[in-house]
Amino acid sequence: MGIGVTATVNSQLSVSNRGYIREIVLNDDGSGYTSTPTVAISTAPNAAGNVNATAVAITTTRGGVFSIERIQLTHAGIGYTEHH
Asked: Does 74 score more than 90 pLDDT?
């Protein structure tokens, strides 16, 4: 990542049944990226049957600035009890 601003997000968690991430909302798209950034999601609590959520960044260029357009969930995960 180059000099710029890191993107920020909020997650929407569904704890009914198995605790999965329903949605990731992009608050700030960041700027100054030189390549597609890695999306980091906290691991699911360590329990049998829990699965970590995964997501990818979808990027765009606007006005010559490379930034994140949205975060796409690739797996909602299982076993989350709270978001950070």
From this structure: yes
Residue range 53-74: average pLDDT? 90
pTM reported for the whole predicted model: 0.76
Length of the chain: 84
Give the helix ranges, DSSP H, for the chain: none
CA distances from residue 81 to 14, 32, 35, 51, 76 in whole angstroms, order as listed = 8, 34, 32, 12, 13
* Side chain identity at residue 27, one-letter code: N
Q: Which long-range contacts (CB under 8 A, 24 or more apart) does 43-49 make?
A: 44/19, 44/77, 44/78, 44/79, 44/80, 45/79, 45/80, 45/81, 47/79, 49/78, 49/79
Does residue 7 contact residue 28 with C-beta atoms inside 8 Å? Answer: yes
DSSP state of 44: P
Higher per-residue pLDDT: 26 or 13: 26
